[in-house]
Amino acid sequence: MPRNIYQAKIDNLPEELVRSAEDVSTVPSPPGHPFSRPEQLKRMSKSVPALPQDEVSGSMTSICSGDFGNLEVKGSIQFAVEYVNSMKELHVFVAQCENLAAADVRKQRSDTYVKIYLLPDKGKMGKKKTVVVKKTLNPVFNEILRYKIEKQMLKTRKLNLSVWHRDTFKRNSFLGEVELDLETWDWDNKQNKVLKWYPLKQKTAPVALEAENRGEMKLALQYVPQPIPGKNLPTAGEVHIWVKECLDLPLLRGSHLNSFVKCTILPDTSKKSRQRTRAIGKTTNPVFNHTMVYDGFRPEDMMEACVELTVWDHYKLTNQFLGGLRIGSGTGKSYGIEVDWMDSTSKEADFWEKMVNSPNTWIEATLPLRMLLIAKISK
Questions:
Q1: Same domain, yes or no: 317 and 178
Q2: Which of 21, 58, 114, 311 is most buried (CB neighbours < 10 A)?
Q3: Could you tell me the residue range of the domain that residue 328 belongs to?
Q4: Spatial CA neighbour of 53 closest among 262, 355, 336
Q5: Are residues 265 and 340 located together in one domain of the fold?
Q6: Residue 223, domain member (yes or no)
Q7: Are residues 110 and 136 in the same domain?
């Protein structure tokens, strides 16, 4: 039986990588695939992403969405916290707010809700929120928001309550927050179980979130030029991405973690550009040993493209962002257009430069994961 296209290429790969061939997610397209002819992309297999040049996307969406600077922070919030041992649940009783800032200055009112997190979990799985109470600066909620969590785990958490205005277009504006360190919280003190008023404060969580350790990724990159024999045409090559393992990933759901890695080569944000590893459960140090191949790169494209790698925790029907990398030139521009995603750190940019300057050679690095503004995927 003849070998498939990818099998014919693995003879020169490291022995460690050959053993993971069953995990390889793509195969290279036929030799001579022109990078600069978008009409040929439509005939490509969806499992072989390439980087089209007919458009550059600068569209971004934030992991932590919302407007943090437009409205004054004032007023206070009344709430109480209690751990119910019989249910193994943390209960947060959100009672009311008073003297909030007015999002609608003319009518002196806001449409308000309260959102809570158990930091460092800043994702959808850890988010709880009240209903929206409209047209008042003194909203009454009287809601109990619950977390199923072992009491011992609360010693590693901070309770963050934030107040928000939500307008008719579902845009959110920050009105203030309160944060309690549960490591030192006295659960036996009856006074801590009664309703108390807390003054709302300016936003502090984003700073803490940026500084938070999100773990590391060990990986290797290789640029493989593919000149066309006998023709004086630009070289079209491949970028090989070998995701080896992640180290010290954060736990967002107690002691559970089921992580995987997604990859996109920006500026291509189409779905066919997205590849991923399998999910690895029950460890904060998952070993993926997974390669991804993207073709259609000319030498001049290497300064314009960026490898976006993101790590996710899969739970039931949702995926929670853990951290990511952007490996590229870090110039802030792609094909002459300013884009937010060309924001590589110095370590990420140095890694990319070493790969570009060392064709046909695996370049390895261990890089810290960080918060990212994730590029929207186009159809």
A1: no
A2: 114
A3: 215-227+234-369
A4: 336
A5: yes
A6: yes
A7: yes
Neighbouring residues of 280: CB distance < 8 A, sequence distance ≥ 6: 258, 259, 260, 286, 287, 288
The residue type found at 51 is L
Question: Which of 146, 154, 108, 149 minimizes the C-alpha distance to 130?
Answer: 146
Which CATH number does the domain housing residue 221 bear?
2.60.40.150
Cβ neighbours around 7 below 10 Å, total: 13
Give me the pLDDT at residue 320, please: 83
**What is the model's pLDDT at position 123?**
53
263, 266, 270, 275 alpha-carbon torsion, rounded to 10°: -10
Residues 273 and 325 in one domain: yes
* CA-based nearest residue to 370, from 186, 209, 163: 209
Residue 91 amino acid letter: H
- Residues with pLDDT less than 50, the chain: 1-69, 205-211, 378-379
- Indicate if 240 and 286 belong to the same structural domain: yes
The rounded distance, in Å, linking the Cα atoms of 129 and 140 is 14
Please say whether the beta carbons of 283 and 257 come within 8 A: yes
Kindly list the strands in the beta sheet with 216-224, ordered across the sheet, starting from the edge strand earlier in the chain: 287-297, 237-247, 216-224, 363-368
pTM above 0.90, yes or no: no
Contacts of 111 (CB under 8 A, 6+ apart): 103, 132, 133, 134, 135, 165, 166, 167
Cα 209 to Cα 163: distance, rounded to the nearest angstrom: 18
Q: Which two three-digit tokens encode residue 198?
A: 């807390």
Q: What pLDDT does 122 receive?
A: 57
* 252/122 same-domain check: no
Q: Which pLDDT does position 39 carry in this prediction?
A: 37
Overall number of domains in the chain: 2
Q: Give the CA distances from residue 294 to residues 28, 130, 166, 366, in Å, rounded to whole numbers and listed in that order.
A: 7, 45, 42, 21
What sections of the chain are H helices per DSSP? 15-18, 38-41, 205-211, 346-356
